[in-house]
Amino acid sequence: MKKKTLALMLSTALCVGMLAGCGGDSNTTATPAAGTGSPAQTAPAANESISGTVNTNGSTSMEDVMGSLIESYRGIQSGVTVGYSGTGSSAGIEGVLAGTCDIGLSSRGLKAEEEEQGAVAHVVALDGVAVVVNPANTAEDLTVEQIAQIFTGEVTNWSELGGADGEIVVIGREAGSGTRSAFEEIVGVEEECAYRNELTSTGDVIANVASNPNAIGYASLSSVDETVKTVKVEGVAPSEATVQDGTYKIQRPFLMVTKEGAQLSPAAQAFLDYAMSADVAEIIANAGAVPPVQ
User: Fold this and answer.
1) Phi, psi torsion values for 192, nearest 5 degrees
2) Helix 178-187 vs helix 144-152: angle between axes, to the nearest 10 degrees?
């Protein structure tokens, strides 16, 4: 009887010990070591999906670049909707300062008073516009002033510029074209150009210049081909390198504008980071602009 009682006591003690040991292991697993944090507190991975809406507003000239960036970003973050409204550079800057949009868009540099209000510029792309003539044309180098005189009709014959006798045929884009807007704004001839033909595509401008020895036009740098000749502007030939280093004068920046001290939403910040990355250089080039130096 004593032997049975002793065996029962030992068996009970063993079970209690085993249960205590199991309970101790469970508690150790649930409590993280000091300083490690739980999985729920760990920062999201860089490639983790995000969602939300990003409102951008501003430059109409940036429509092609923005469209390409938005389309490509959709393939990376399908949960993010990026909206674009083309209301003009000034309106975009005013919008981001007032908080009515997440990111403002500007195709000009910021003014001092805009920077004083907290506007911060992020250069997404550069817009280089080449002046093109027929390959048979002897014109090699023009000043910005001479280009302005040609396009406003003040100078009407190539002989006035040292070339062969021939009436200058001024070719340009239609009203509303971003390329036209860029060219006229930079050269200082807005609403003053005397076009012989106003065409609806860059391809048409190049084709018309290529077929007429006396024609002159303009085109986004990325669209120029061997059928036309680019003209140096004050001694500098248009190229990606001269646009990037600022020596070619017929160019302007494409900016995304934020407000200093105003925190972007995760979706807006992620889109801005994407647009500013080296990964989008080819996308920007295909949209007709020049990627900035990273």
Assistant:
1) -125, -5
2) 120
Q: Are 89 and 107 in contact (CB under 8 A)?
A: yes
Q: What Å distances lie between residue 197 and 160, 204, 209, CA to CA? A: 22, 10, 11
Helices 63-74 and 266-275 sit at what angle, rounded to 10 degrees? 110
Answer whether 249's CB lies under 8 Å from 234's CB. yes
Contact present, 254 and 59 (Cβ < 8 Å)? yes
Which domains are assigned to the chain?
52-126+253-286 (3.40.190.10), 128-244 (3.40.190.10)
| Strand, helix or coil for residue 215 | strand
Sequential pLDDT tens for the chain (294 residues): 444 443 444 344 433 344 343 343 333 333 333 333 323 333 334 457 899 999 999 998 899 999 999 999 999 999 999 999 998 899 999 999 999 999 999 988 899 999 999 999 999 999 899 999 999 999 999 999 999 999 999 999 999 998 999 999 999 999 878 789 889 989 999 999 999 999 988 899 999 999 999 999 999 888 899 999 999 999 999 999 999 999 999 999 999 999 999 999 999 999 999 999 999 999 999 998 999 987
Does residue 210 contact residue 228 with C-beta atoms inside 8 Å? yes
SS3 73: helix
With beta carbons less than 8 A apart as the criterion, state whether 220 and 288 touch.
Answer: yes
According to DSSP, the β-strands at 232-233 and 103-106 are unpaired
| Contact between residue 223 and residue 202 where contact means Cβ atoms under 8 Å apart | yes
Q: Are 108 and 190 in contact (CB under 8 A)?
A: no
CA distance 280 to 284: 6
Cα–Cα distance for residue pair 197/182, rounded to 1 Å: 18
